[in-house]
Amino acid sequence: MHLLRTLCEIAAPSGHEAPLTEFLLHYIQQHAPGWRVQPQVLAGDDLQDCIILVFGQPRTAVFAHIDSIGFTVRYGRQLVRIGGPDVQTGYRLVGRDALGSIECTLTVDEQTGALGYEFNRDIERGTELTFQCDFRETAEAVQSCYLDNRLGVWTALRLCETLEHGIVAFSCWEEHGGGSVKYLAKRIYEQYGVRQALVCDITWVTEGVHAGQGCVISLRDSLIPRRSYVERIRRIAEASGIPYQLEVEGSGGSDGKELQHGAQPWDWCFVGAPEDHVHTPDELVYKADIDSMLRLYQVLMQEL
Amino acid sequence: MHLLRTLCEIAAPSGHEAPLTEFLLHYIQQHAPGWRVQPQVLAGDDLQDCIILVFGQPRTAVFAHIDSIGFTVRYGRQLVRIGGPDVQTGYRLVGRDALGSIECTLTVDEQTGALGYEFNRDIERGTELTFQCDFRETAEAVQSCYLDNRLGVWTALRLCETLEHGIVAFSCWEEHGGGSVKYLAKRIYEQYGVRQALVCDITWVTEGVHAGQGCVISLRDSLIPRRSYVERIRRIAEASGIPYQLEVEGSGGSDGKELQHGAQPWDWCFVGAPEDHVHTPDELVYKADIDSMLRLYQVLMQEL
Amino acid sequence: MHLLRTLCEIAAPSGHEAPLTEFLLHYIQQHAPGWRVQPQVLAGDDLQDCIILVFGQPRTAVFAHIDSIGFTVRYGRQLVRIGGPDVQTGYRLVGRDALGSIECTLTVDEQTGALGYEFNRDIERGTELTFQCDFRETAEAVQSCYLDNRLGVWTALRLCETLEHGIVAFSCWEEHGGGSVKYLAKRIYEQYGVRQALVCDITWVTEGVHAGQGCVISLRDSLIPRRSYVERIRRIAEASGIPYQLEVEGSGGSDGKELQHGAQPWDWCFVGAPEDHVHTPDELVYKADIDSMLRLYQVLMQEL
């Protein structure tokens, strides 16, 4: 879990993913020689801070978003949300501005809900703050901020080790309105003819989805993927013997949203471990579900 | 109205349009030989469950969505909406899961508004339920679930009988967030140079739009189509002598939304009969308005 | 400011931008011969009512929307909003229908908030009404309806006088759901390889943005542009010595929204003067901020 910890510790809120992109490009350069198949690596300004890895003759693409939720410093000592972080007075936030590194405390006005910070000085307008990472590991689970979606990124990187045919795409802005999957989807479809997607992301423990009972295959959230594709995924999962759970929600979204709304006929399905304490500094995922997630991805990328 | 009844009876909620697609492909194969012009039929995985028919040298495309509203079974005996169905305790719902066919009753919790079902067994998670079809016809009107938009589909099919130049596109997911018109619009524009659209769908009887007074030409809903195009349509309708009504709304949407937001310069206009009891099992449309709708489409496809 | 006044006086609500398009094409034809570089002028049905001007070897595109907010006449004497105009009983509205030109008064129902009009006759269904223009100028400021965004259009036109390399795009529908920037962005990216954008529009005076203290560079609104691009703009502005202010908001949007959500990897940043009395007939902008805006655009288009 050393890699996962490192991923969780890198600050990369939506719009400022570059530090994690840099880490990933370095990691890929170092580790790809040990992978079963050497991928083609697409990156650079035409992909902004995204990365596409192409293995063999791809039929399916995995999308894992690298950005996280956080806060932007506004005027006075006000904060504005990046994505939908949980807020509680006392959460520890970190960042950096022209005056140096920052460790401060989130404040939530009890009356108005207005967000602010406590620190020994004013922070520069526009500075991004993210949760301070307190990575915890037991025999049973991992707990940290940003398991959503550094655990998806981790799964995608581990998948790369044995992947023979497929695409792994690291996307941006998922937590805050999207904005990269549209062009990733276009490029992948036009250049490689791929239109099958798996959204490699973290979902919620709910009354119908339980921690420790396996990776989630989502039948729907706020959007409804094409039934015939989701059914194929269910059948592969069923035949594999790997534990999994089915999710049915009326709300929530993912990179699947941009695939659904893009100008290519993508089939997509959300497949990911469930977490508790969503969007807090204490996101918790069971190791059994991480294991199930990785194994499911390995099988799906072979069979789809 | 036998064809309309058959269309209304086929369950095809958003995301699971395949059964209606199959019916349409079969219908087209059977009936196209009797049509004035033989269309090119585009279908298959690159169009997911959509169909495009190309007649002659097209200048204008008709979009008719084939999906319907409905419900997805969640956990316990909960239901989640597909699109925006009206809900009342007692509505009859039908579906099918691994244990067989289902006829159950919708329940709406009076306190919380939570949706559920009453049935003699639990229904499999993720199963789709749709309104049970009770098709009624009088001398004056037809009444059924899903006239929105099986009546649009019916009009499009009847239009095909005499169409010389034009495109008829059957789209998916309109009732639930969209997701097919973006690629239909791209393909039609790039392959055929067509950028004029008519949205062949059903609208509402309101204080300004009355049942039996003719097909509606919508000047705007939540979006505003380009004025100059809508004016051309008004002038053609006016000159034709066919009864029509003008609609002006501040809310509501259609496949026009995806045309408006796509990356091609589509001009679009919603043209369709008004219905009462919208999104209930008892949608009602006057035959005079159906007649006006079909005749208006015939004229518009010639003149535009 | 004669040109600005003329721009403010032309009615061109979202969806009916054609009158302003016509004015601009005429203006460009007349004045381009006096500009430093002769641009290529792209217009016509494939761009609907938009215009693209291409100067030299472009690296950056300026987007200025030409549409305005307003009202559509519904049924009876009801009005529906175009975009988000401020509403107060007594605002003077103008328009034209088949019976002739219209000068009427906005009414807002105190109980329901319902919008209507007072006039000596009924107005034709679907007629657009816009604020009556009362253009005021002092030594310090200009005040009028529709400075948002006729001042952006004015700035873009003045920028054209000296622009050597770059694109100026006049867009439509910005105030009401968008719909043109997607195809403008696609065409500009595919045809000219340009993926850097400046959104030339007007923003708000707030607790952190003050009238008269310089053009605004927005670090974020409801969406978050890519950090590295915004930082480059800040550095160029800083080095230029031109007064500017930084904005950080959690809401609001612009043409940047469509750039962010399109299928090309656009970097974008909102750069524009702040105004008071937003979306009223009395929008007010300081001349110092107009001056700062134009100079900042001149520098940015050279340096980016």
List keywords for this structure.
19 strands, globular, 304 residues, Aminopeptidase, 7 helices, homotrimer, alpha/beta
Radius of gyration of chain A over all CA atoms, rounded:
19 Å
Order of strands, widest sheet of chain A: 1-2-12-3-13-17-15-16
What's the total helix number of chain A?
Answer: 7
The shape of chain A, in one word, is: globular
| Distance between the first and last residues' Cα of chain A | 28 Å
Overall pLDDT metric of chain A: 98
Order of helices and strands of chain A: HHEEEEEEEEEEEHEHEEEHEHEEEH
Using DSSP, what is the number of strands of chain A? Answer: 19
- The portion of residues forming beta strands of chain A comes to 25-35%
Report the structural category of chain A.
Answer: alpha/beta
What is the CATH H-level superfamily of the largest domain in chain A?
Zn peptidases
CATH architecture of the largest domain in chain A: 3-Layer(aba) Sandwich
Protein name (chains A, B, C): Aminopeptidase
GO biological process, one term (chains A, B, C): proteolysis
Family (chains A, B, C): Belongs to the peptidase M42 family.
Keywords (chains A, B, C): Aminopeptidase, Hydrolase, Metal-binding, Protease
Characterize the structure shown:
Chain A is of the alpha/beta class. Chain A has seven helices and 19 strands. In chain A, strands 1-2-12-3-13-17-15-16 form an eight-stranded mixed beta sheet, with helices on both faces. Chain A has a six-stranded antiparallel beta sheet with strand order 5-4-9-6-7-8, with no helix packed on it. In chain A, strands 10-11-19 form a three-stranded antiparallel beta sheet. In chain A, strand 4 and strand 5 (79-82) form a beta hairpin. In chain A, helix 3 (147-160) packs across helix 7. Chains in contact: A-B, A-C, B-C. Chains A and C meet through strand 5 and helix 4 of A and loops of C.
